[in-house]
Automatic annotation (TrEMBL), chain B:
It comes from Rhodanobacter panaciterrae. Belongs to the iron-sulfur cluster assembly SufBD family. Residues 153-213 form the SUF system FeS cluster assembly SufBD N-terminal domain. InterPro entries: Fe-S_cluster_assembly_SufBD (IPR055346), SUF_FeS_clus_asmbl_SufB (IPR010231), SUF_FeS_clus_asmbl_SufBD_core (IPR000825), SUF_FeS_clus_asmbl_SufBD_sf (IPR037284), SufBD_N (IPR045595). This is Fe-S cluster assembly protein SufB. NCBIfam families: PRK11814.1, sufB. Residues 221-463 form the SUF system FeS cluster assembly SufBD core domain. Pfam families: SUFBD_core (PF01458), SufBD_N (PF19295). It comes from the Bacteria.
Length: 252, 492
């Protein structure tokens, strides 16, 4: 059974059809890169999968570990192991980063019928993850994303992912707006989290992230559908020739 | 230079356009029960005889009776205030009873009626000293009388006087006579005049020179009787170099008719004295259709009478159908400091018009105002504040920050800052923001596994952090819980 099976997905935003019959299968342990030109529907895919309001699915299905993912509320999807790293992480003034993360962590555990962590247990976990992610603990004492630089916000997303340990991680343009050092840091974080039980869906416009996080599969998303799939070499080909002229002869 | 500025900004925005928000603003008010206890009191109505009777019941000296009568006569000549941004049904002052008390009169703590002890127990305020909140002395006021004050012996050893106002008038008349009405004169405003005429009880605190009060002091006000107004009077005097931290809490049963609460609080800080006054106000706010609830018309003022003194108001206001309240500080002493930290939350049809006045008279006086307004449902929440720099306020400074948070699309938030600057060296700063809980914030929290309701209370808590930090620790926890309960179902 695939971990994630998207079949013939159609979705609308504000009455406009963005996804037009997207199909994709992802297995545990795989890293899939979704590439494509602006406006192809890349971010829409991430938002539909994580359940954002305002995205209306008009046809098709998404099955995650055998369950109808689209029937679940966003918080239930999170508890089931779906994680979205935001393209634009949101600031929550006055709410401590660690407090926020612990609330999320415990809400997910509670939803799964697991015992919640007390603050000592959680602190221990956070310390371990900090080491792996090479993040300064100064970030933890600040309010969620408030006053963070672009790079800090993205690293904070990856840090949240490390703590929440999702099964399916969707990275929405995590590389955008990062300089090369920040990009490497983020990539190191993602690589550290690769595991046979976890799948990644990396949405990106540029192939440079793929130099650091090498994907198992590369898909090209254009006009709401996957128009071409391949391995890492496809990304290099795209780098060379651009997105123009893609999709000719691709299976619908 | 003489400049003044009046600025109004108002905003009404939306969180989410779905119908659930509108209908789901249900809240559970856990303090809404009624205590069955035999009561005694005066029949409804107000005239000179009522004033004399209240004074007689309390066995007051003649000067006190006269003081009340003078206030009453003044009150008769005063027009009702209507300038606040509130819709108020006319109040029939003859339909209200001005005195209600449990029949078995005030006794020592050990003899307090078990039904009363149980009432306070249910409200989380145990009056048995053994069970009491550690390090907090409590004066419990039930309708028109104080039913008990804890830890009096320990306080007396430190020289601190903490008792009901009625008792203070009998036991310490010289102190009361010197300070009562010295901050809020009897004719100050309509409700202060009414209070001066008919006030029944309240708390009295006196901290002698150089004493740091060994524990937090608190008063818990409970309205129980029907058709009764509560008119409490609190006086806190901190002599030279003394310190005190005081907290009040308030609740009332759920009833369909509106009840009037018109309190006066006076604080006096002499040289180098510090008074910290915190309020957690949770009067019954009325139901989701705006029926019932307390009319909360309160005059609170502190006088930094001595140099280098400091008065700090912190309030968390979640209750009452209508709140009309401006805890203020008169910065008379040089280098004195006034602070006002406020969280006001309104829901359903609640209306709040609250803020502060900082009157700078002395040199190098400083004031700081942090006001946070949260509006949900169809409520209206206004900040009204005055910063006045008088001629002698050389080098005085004020910093004001007003933030409004809107939940839903039918509520309103308004800011009315008034500034009068008569000294060119004074500096007045004002910052105001209006925000809403954004869809992005909600989705961000939910995508991490946090439910909508928890997300709202987390965001609101973050919004209030600056104010909660000012509360004594136990009460900060209490305040946070109170906001959570008050926001139950705020987002559909």
């Amino acid at each position: 059974m695939n971990m994630l099976k998207i079949e013939n997905l159609h979705a609308r935003v504000e009455g406009k059809e963005i996804l037009k019959g997207l199909s994709l299968s992802v297995n545990a342990g795989e890293v899939h890169a979704i590439m494509g030109p602006n406006g192809a529907g890349k971010s829409t895919l991430g938002n539909v999968l994580s359940g954002r309001d305002g995205y209306e699915v008009t046809a098709g299905s998404v099955t995650y570990n055998g369950v109808d993912l689209l029937a679940l509320e966003p918080e239930a999807r999170a508890a089931a192991g779906v994680f979205l790293a935001f393209q634009y992480p949101v600031e929550i003034p006055g709410v401590n980063n660690t407090y926020f993360l612990r609330a999320a962590f415990n809400a997910q555990r509670k939803a799964r019928g697991e015992k919640e962590f007390d603050s000592m247990q959680f602190l221990k976990l956070v310390r371990e993850k900090l080491k792996v992610m090479q993040i300064s603990d100064e970030l933890l004492h600040r309010a969620v994303n408030e006053g963070f630089s672009g790079g800090e916000k993205k690293r904070n997303e990856i840090f949240q992912m490390a703590v929440l340990e999702p099964q399916l991680a969707i990275l929405d343009e995590t590389d955008s707006g990062l300089d090369i050092d920040a990009l490497k840091h983020v990539a190191d974080g993602v690589n550290a989290l690769r595991s046979p039980d976890r799948a990644f869906l990396m949405i990106t416009h540029y192939q440079r992230l793929l130099d650091y996080v090498v994907p198992d599969f590369v898909h090209v998303l254009a006009d709401g559908r996957i128009v071409e799939s391949g391995d890492k070499s496809l990304a290099l080909k795209l780098e060379e020739h651009g997105y123009a002229g893609l999709g000719e002869g691709a299976a619908a | 230079m003489n400049s003044s500025m009046i600025n109004e900004s108002s905003a009404t925005t939306t969180l989410r356009d779905n119908a659930e928000v509108a209908e789901a603003l249900g809240r559970s008010y856990t303090a809404g029960f009624v205590t069955e206890i035999e009561m005694t009191g005066l029949p409804p109505g107000l005239n000179e005889e009522t004033v004399r009777q209240i004074s007689a019941i309390k066995q007051e000296p003649a000067w006190m009776t006269e003081w009340r009568l003078e206030a009453y006569r003044h009150w008769l000549t005063m027009p009702k205030p209507d300038w606040a941004k509130l819709n108020i049904e006319p109040i029939d002052y003859q339909a209200i009873s001005y005195y209600a008390a449990p029949k078995a009169g005030p006794k020592s703590l050990a003899e307090v009626d078990p039904a009363l002890l149980e009432t306070y127990e249910k409200l989380g305020i145990p009056l048995h000293e053994r069970a009491a909140l550690a390090g907090v002395a409590v004066d419990a006021v039930f309708d028109s009388v104080s039913v008990g004050t804890t830890f009096r012996k320990q306080l007396a050893e430190a020289g601190v006087l903490f008792c009901s106002m009625s008792e203070a008038i009998r036991e310490y008349p010289e102190i009361v006579r010197q300070y009562l009405g010295s901050v809020v004169p009897t004719g100050d405003n309509f409700f202060a005049a009414l209070n001066s005429a008919v006030f029944s009880d309240g708390s009295f605190v006196f901290i002698p020179k150089g004493v740091r009060c060994p524990m937090e002091l608190s008063t818990y006000f409970r309205i129980n009787a029907q058709n009764t107004g509560q008119f409490e009077r609190t006086l806190i005097v901190a002599e030279e170099g003394s310190h005190v931290s005081y907290l009040e809490g308030c609740t009332a049963p759920k009833r369909d008719e509106n009840q009037l609460h018109a309190a006066v609080v006076e604080l006096v800080a002499l040289e180098k004295a510090q008074i910290k006054y915190s309020t957690v106000q949770n009067w019954y706010p009325g139901d989701e259709n705006g029926v019932g609830g307390i009319y909360n018309f309160v005059t609170k003022r502190g006088d930094c009478r001595g140099d280098d003194s400091k008065i700090s108001w912190t309030q968390v206001e979640t209750g009452s159908a209508i709140t009309w309240k401006y805890p203020s500080v008169v910065l008379r002493g040089d280098r004195s400091v006034g602070e006002f930290y406020s969280v006001a939350l309104t829901h359903h049809y609640q209306q709040a018009d609250t803020g502060t006045k900082m009157i700078h008279l002395g040199k190098y006086t400083k004031s700081k105002i942090v006001a946070k307004g949260i509006s949900a449902g169809r409520s209206s929440n206004s900040y009204r504040g005055l910063v006045k720099m008088e001629k002698g306020a050389e080098g005085a400074r004020n910093y004001t920050q007003c933030d409004s948070l809107l939940i839903g699309k039918k509520c309103g938030a308004h800011t009315f800052p008034y500034m009068e600057v008569k000294n060119p060296t004074a500096i007045v700063e004002h910052e105001a923001t209006t925000s809403k809980i954004s869809d992005d914030q909600m989705f961000y929290c939910r995508s991490r596994g946090i439910s909508e309701e928890d997300a709202v209370s987390m965001i609101v808590d973050g919004f209030c952090k600056q104010v909660f930090r000012e509360l004594p620790m136990e009460f900060a926890v209490e305040a946070k819980k109170l906001l959570e309960v008050s926001l139950e179902g705020a987002v559909g």
